[in-house]
Design a protein that fits this description.
18 helices, two-stranded antiparallel sheet, mainly alpha, DNA polymerase, domain 1, single chain
Length: about 475
């Protein structure tokens, strides 16, 4: 009796290919052409220069190597070995991305950057300096200075020698810790350095420059201690309040700005500069909830009675209509906006305020500070509640971002894969009288004030 068997084998097709070739579009003065890695990915093609060039007659396209008759270098074999190593290194990167199921989610430009950046940076210092340059271009000088300070102390600890990524391991971190403490420095001072080192390493992992397998913070835990409170006592605050100053004295205004910030629980002076209490109803502040799934983190939400009582006080204290109100849903945390106000908001004049993804991410991180382990656990618990909606794999990745302090990627993924998909379409249901950018807060505030003045002059009332 014969038994017929069928074997079903998985068919693996990688839509990515590498080939050593000449770039015949770029002829040099000596009639030579650059040797390149021709990268094909998802039906698109680009090239990666390898820093060598030969004439056409000395290139074997079938074997993808320089012919032995070429006399432009001392050793042909060494040159060909170098080219083969570059191709093998790029192939390893592609294979690694495929194994992690990331390859087909990268554009050809992103894949090229992974290959080129991995070749460019294996120095922690060089990569750190590249981050500083990017931060300065974005005018984030405070962050740039923080990275610069960490690189400076690491160079001093390393006695001026370069620091490779593979050298920055658990043992290195422990030695740096001992060095820090031997100089009489604090636990929290070390934590600041270590968090910046960790952030740099996380950026390198996300850029494909270093493997996450080499991550030194898996075993090394950053320690902190409660900071001793350093604040003025009530006697000093009263003395500042009672200080007699003429209005012509600059100190008169500085004192008042300080006291206003103090009374408003530490509002920043930048926000204070644009604050006008006569035309703003801040529903989120009244509810003590940011009106999102994460809105109650580090806050104590108010109940309905407290919310409505404060809302009445706010409305009674307002100046001339119309007023600015953020377009919230009726439910803010555990309270509801009174139906008459919700109806007035729905029938009011709509203004759409936009900003870039990077600006949104930056502002959300500032608005949702992860101050301690308690808030970290709270955020992780909320993320886990989204497993059914976003999938286990995505939530595991988000929890990893959270624990590693990679808040930029955490917020970016939540915005793109959850909030914008869930709520973005509803924005198109409204008709907008004005659309403006909030990249520059002061310019946006001025434009809103001008628009409000136009509404007033036309006799508009309400919100």
């Amino acid at each position: 009796m014969q038994i017929a068997c069928k074997f079903f084998l998985p068919l693996y097709i990688m839509y990515t290919n590498l080939k050593l070739s000449l770039d015949t579009r770029r002829k040099k003065k000596d009639n030579s052409y650059p040797i390149i890695l021709r990268l094909s990915h998802l039906r698109k093609t680009t090239s990666i220069s390898l820093g060598h060039s030969v004439q056409k007659e000395f290139w074997d396209d079938k074997s993808q190597k320089v012919k032995k008759t070429f006399n432009g270098v001392s050793t042909i074999g060494r040159l060909n070995n170098q080219l083969i190593k570059e191709k093998a290194r790029a192939t390893d990167i592609i294979n690694d991305l495929h194994e992690k199921d990331e390859l087909n989610f990268l554009s050809i430009k992103q894949l090229k950057n992974r290959i080129v950046k991995t070749a460019t940076f294996d120095s922690f210092f060089e990569y750190g300096n590249s981050i500083i340059i990017e931060l300065k271009k974005a005018q984030r000088f405070g962050n740039a200075n923080s990275y610069y300070a960490v690189l400076k102390i690491l160079k001093k600890f390393n006695e001026g020698n370069d620091l490779k990524f593979n050298e920055l391991n658990y043992e290195f971190l422990k030695k740096f810790e001992q060095y820090h403490y031997s100089r009489g420095n604090s636990v929290n001072g070390l934590a600041v350095y270590m968090k910046t080192i960790r952030a740099t390493y996380n950026k390198a992992i996300n850029a494909g420059i270093i493997s996450k397998d080499a991550y030194p913070f898996t075993n090394y835990k950053i320690k902190t201690t409660p900071t001793e409170k350093r604040a003025l006592d009530i006697k000093s605050i009263k003395a500042i309040m009672m200080l007699k100053l003429e209005e012509t004295d600059n100190l008169f205004h500085f004192r008042n700005y300080f006291l206003a910030s103090y009374m408003l629980y530490g509002i920043s002076f930048i926000d204070l500069a644009f604050l006008k209490l006569d035309n703003i109803i801040d529903l989120e502040d009244l509810a003590q909830h940011r009106s999102s799934l994460f809105g109650a983190v580090d806050r104590v939400p108010r109940n309905q009675r407290e919310f409505e009582s404060l809302l009445v006080e706010t409305v009674q204290s307002l100046g001339e209509e119309p007023y600015f109100i953020e377009g919230e849903s009726r439910k803010i945390g555990r309270v509801f906006t009174p139906r008459p106000l919700a109806l007035a908001m729905k029938e009011g004049v709509c203004v759409r305020v936009n900003c870039s993804m990077e600006t949104r991410i930056k502002r959300i991180i500032e608005d949702y500070p992860v101050a301690d382990e308690k808030s970290l656990n709270q955020l992780e618990q909320i993320l886990n509640s989204l497993r059914q909606k976003m999938g286990h794999r995505t939530i595991d990745r988000l929890c990893s971002f959270l624990r590693k302090g990679n808040f930029e990627e955490l917020v970016r993924t939540l915005l793109l894969d959850y909030y914008d998909k869930r709520y973005g379409n509803s924005m198109n249901d409204y008709s907008y009288e004005l659309e403006l950018s909030s990249e520059n807060i002061s310019a946006a505030a001025a434009e809103l004030e001008g628009f409000r003045a136009t509404l007033i002059s036309s006799g508009h009332r309400g919100v």
